[in-house]
Backbone:
């Protein structure tokens, strides 16, 4: 899966959750922030694994482009 595809998948998953939370209004900004938090956690988990860190940094850039 490319970084762009992964970024789109993460954002879509948070959008899906937002559809079912009727009491809370979730903006596109908050959805993207949730996805970015997820990616930051993955980057931290991949410390020492340069290829993994690069992939998740690319995903983070793609989320910011959405």
Residues:
């Amino acid at each position: 899966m490319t970084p762009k595809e992964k970024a789109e998948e993460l954002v879509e998953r948070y959008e899906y959750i937002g559809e079912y939370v009727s009491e809370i209004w979730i903006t596109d900004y908050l959805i993207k922030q949730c996805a970015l938090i997820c990616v930051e956690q993955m980057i931290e988990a991949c410390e020492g694994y340069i290829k993994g860190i690069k992939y998740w940094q690319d995903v983070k850039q793609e989320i910011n482009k959405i």
About this structure: The CA atoms of residues 14 and 52 lie 22 Å apart. The mean pLDDT is 85. The radius of gyration is 13 Å.
